[in-house]
Amino acid sequence: MKNAQVKATQLRDYVAPAFLVDHVDLTFFLKSEATKVHSKLKIRQNSNDKQPLVLDGDELRLDSVAVDGRELSSDEYQLGEFSLIIPDFPAEGELEVVTYIDPVKNTKLEGLYLSGGNFCTQCEAEGFRRITYYPDRPDVMATYTVTVHADQTSYPILLSNGNLIDQGVSNDGSHWARWDDPFPKPSYLFALVAGDLACYEDGFKTRSGQDVTLKIFVEHGNEDKCAYAMDSLIRSMKWDEERFGLEYDLDIFNIVAVSDFNMGAMENKSLNIFNSKCILASPDTATDMEFERIEAIVAHEYFHNWTGNRVTCRDWFQLSLKEGLTVYRDQEFTADMRSAPVKRIQDVRTLRARQFPEDAGPLSHPIRPESYIEINNFYTSTVYEKGGEVIRMMAELLGRDGFRKGLDLYFNRHDNQAVTCDDFVAAMEDANGADLNHFRLWYSQAGTPEVEANWSYDEKEQSLTLTLDQITAPTPGQKLKQPLLIPFTVGLLGQNGEELPLKLQGENVENASTQRTLRFDREHQTFKFVDLNQHPVPSLNRNFSAPIKLSTKYSTEDLRFLMGHDKDAFSRWDAAQTYASRLMLKMVKSVQDGDVVEFDHQYADALALNIADKSLDPAFLAQILALPSIDYVTEQMEVADFAAVEKVRSVFKVGIAKALFEQFKELYLAGKETVAYSPDSASAGRRALCNAALGYLSVIENDPECLRLVVEQFETADNMTDRMAALSLLADIPGEEREKALVAFEKRYADNALVMDKWFAVQATSSIPNALDEVKKLLSHSAFSYKNPNKVRALIGAFSGANPARFHAEDGEGYRFLADSIIHLNGINPQVASKILAPLGSWRRMNVTHQKMMKAELQRILDTENLSNDVYEIASKSLS
Ligand code: TRP
Ligand code: ZN
């Protein structure tokens, strides 16, 4: 059992660094088991009084320390497990340290490690200290010169940040390259890559005429899977110039794809390192969704060059400063590249699926946390996605131009600085003469606000009174909540679906607009709309203007009406979600009461109207057809009953499929007529619709005709989207066809690790009753490895995080399996281990039997010897 020794870092304890580093000069002699790192630092005192120089270090073997050319004896410094302290360091001086590290043993994938035989680094957040002793905090910014020596045959490519300034060959057959990064940066943006890699090259001319060489480095044989990532990069560079006036600032931009990576990608200055999953794509190996994800992540990392690198974070509590803002920017980019409403729907789906549960559970924290044990645990959906929502709300409040002015001022003020979230908000205020003081609460208050909307129409007065109430439930460590400033966008629909002009009482406007964003900033607030000669249906929180849980007194007629008429695509989709989950919850009650479960035809009728509306974008229609997930429905229950929801959702889906059989068949056959594969947004939308239709057809039991369609698509598809769609449908249908398809897929893609991940995941998320047994068997498949994070996520993560009905199985085996996996992974890669723990923390929502089993597993994890801080923090918070 871990003890109280583990110390939390607190935001309120922040103090400026005692010493700054102006320049870093690193020389690497790369060897698999013993890499020598020679570091020379130009250091300068940053405090008024003399203080010891404290450097961070982790798993380093110290060789020598010298100050201003004189080697120190061992009594002139103190070496701790995680630090090197030099009590008597001059006010200004050069520190020279030689250390050795072991990249082979580095299974944590933080610092310098080997992936597929190539050297690479990952330094965010605190990985640089695993390379050399350094004040490893983002408010210490320095320029870097990096010289890399390595064997020429095994590592022909040598890369680091900035510009290549020199290179050569040494007598012993090794070669070297020297890189210089002129922009001061924090250590977390340092990167180094050495290996035998193929290069895919292109170029970009910035709008001020600078030529930039763009290179993507991949393992040999993958050159043919880089085109889409490169195209995405070029479009990102252009978009950022046009939308935000932001240009690239060096004449070289490199991306390296590696197969062992803890997350999606990393924005190291001019040397982005990516999980190969987020770069490599071809029609035969990647689905449309993966193409879209690659586009978004390439853009995200590129956008970090300004929001993150040129202006960085003062400390890790400010993480959302760069992540929330960059998420907002990549969302806007995708909205411009593809369908804006569909993108919004997808983002809200993700927010509700990941962030809302996080904010309602034991790990709830504000987008700017106040305390952490392990910072790696705070790369959360809250910091990223809710952080993005907070930026979006500011953009909504200030308007597009106002937001742009604020951003311009932010860069003018803070270029080359490490700043805080407050600095960002202040720039927004000052550029607009706005007061965002109340709005700032979004940064410090955790939890999802619950808003209740009520309204009444007064026929005599021809007015509609809208009443809004907000409440945020207490979260761990934050009992008392205050009302937030919520930008609440509304519209009013007339009887024929027309948009009515919105005039608030007391206003004197000529042409009132039909949509407006209300400033809802009190616990209880009333808005009275006048001059309404008919009883309207309100459309609320349009385009999801605020990240809130909205409850309304819509009648089912209202919901059907909105589902058929709302001009706001998001609200139209949301009405369908609300309606469907309401009906399913009603059915769940019948199941629990032992009554017959019946499907309500009216829902199918409402869907039919949407299907018949040929003006709708196919991608949007596919979203309307996608039912709320098991998780989403279960979250609305007092006590979660996954088994009942799974059953009900399936009855519901079959009900729709039977009612609209002809429509789905027609949609499917029409979709099949499309031409050669192209990953563009419109084609992807058509495929999404076609596969949604096939999804409904596939659940009609004992219809050989329908099953044949699925099998045929699997066998004849000329692209991964259609092949995978068919395979995941087959994976839910026990029988010979299922087994045959899985074998065929495995055989076809045995040599492609990324595609095999999909093969693992499709089995891990299958609804077949013995899915867990299958998962356990797959652990010994030759393509599986605990050391590869993608594999762990594809099999273990997918099972526990995306197969709730099997994970919460009555016998508790799902819980036991996850705990066993985490205990095993704790010794290999703590960051990955703690990332898959969250599902065990949801015990409060379960019945007593499940609660007991889940808590026992959490306790078993906590009792593990040598528990990492990563796992300890999440497990202990989950249990408390
Ligand atoms: N900053 C990265 C991003 O948002 C994510 C990141 C943080 C990361 N820590 C990491 C990626 C560790 C890989 C490994 O794009
Ligand atoms: Zn990021």
UniProtKB/TrEMBL annotation:
Keyword Metal-binding part of the UniProt annotation: yes
Pfam families reported in the protein's UniProt record: DUF3458 (PF11940), DUF3458_C (PF17432), Peptidase_M1 (PF01433), Peptidase_M1_N (PF17900)
InterPro entries reported for this sequence: Aminopeptidase_N-like_N (IPR045357), Aminopeptidase_N-like_N_sf (IPR042097), PepN_Ig-like_sf (IPR038438), Peptidase_M1 (IPR001930), Peptidase_M1_dom (IPR014782), Peptidase_M1_pepN (IPR012779), Peptidase_M1_pepN_C (IPR024601), Peptidase_M1_pepN_C_sf (IPR037144)
EC number from the UniProt entry: 3.4.11.2
GO annotation terms (biological process): proteolysis
Keyword Protease set for record: yes
Domain Aminopeptidase N-like N-terminal: residue ranges: 24-189
GO MF annotations, alphabetized: alanyl aminopeptidase activity; metallopeptidase activity; zinc ion binding
Annotated Peptidase M1 alanyl aminopeptidase C-terminal domain residues: 557-879
Stated role: Aminopeptidase N is involved in the degradation of intracellular peptides generated by protein breakdown during normal growth as well as in response to nutrient starvation.
The protein, known as: Aminopeptidase N
This protein's encoding gene: pepN
